[in-house]
Amino acid sequence: MTITVCFHGAESTGKSVLADQLSRELGIPWVPEYGRAYAEEHGTDFTIIDLLAIADGQAAVTRAALAEQPPLLILDTDQLMTAAWAEMLFGAVPASLLSYPKADLYLCFAADVPWVADGTRFFGTQAERQRFAALAQDMLLRTGVRWLPVGGTWDERATTVGNILRQVLIEPGPGS
User: What pairing do the DSSP bridges indicate for beta strands 3-9 and 30-31?
Assistant: First the structure.
């Protein structure tokens, strides 16, 4: 049985960088953010239909990774983050975004590090980042999933998340 750990939170908080880094460091597979590839191909003038397509695309790449049956899988994001995007962009969350399978653990990254523009990011002001971070955290609370906060400097985040993943690797998973 694969344990899934999803990196969750506002843009530019280190999720993708850490997923890649810790995947290599710990030998754990990870599922990149499908929405980034979608935005690079289709642009960032999203509609709700785009967000639903991103959610489906993320589900497909996650299913493919789960088929390999690794003991632990890092998800760079999932449909709960897409739901936070829907709330931020459109003020509403389609019910379908909340119906996808949930990760075993979410790590909610705080927006307390510098924002970095990369061509696909939207919310660079402090007020926008804080609002988006609050919506992301609210999505976790709203759905009742298990989650832990991640904050601090880039190095502190790497240490915290690395320690959490190492702990998950040595603890028996659900059903063990």
Answer: unpaired
pLDDT digits (tens, 9 = 90+) for 81-122: 999 999 999 999 999 999 999 999 999 999 987 766 665 556
* Spatial distance between the Cα atoms of 84 and 163, rounded to a whole number of angstroms: 27
Beta strands in 24-167 (DSSP E): 30-31, 72-75, 105-109, 147-150
**CB-based burial label for 75 (10 Å; 0-12, 13-18, 19+):** buried
> Whole-prediction pTM value?
0.90
Fold for 3-170, please state it: Rossmann fold (3.40.50)
Per the CB < 8 A criterion, the answer to whether 88 and 123 are in contact is yes
| Overall residue count recorded for the chain in this entry | 176
Helix (H) / strand (E) element for 29: namely none
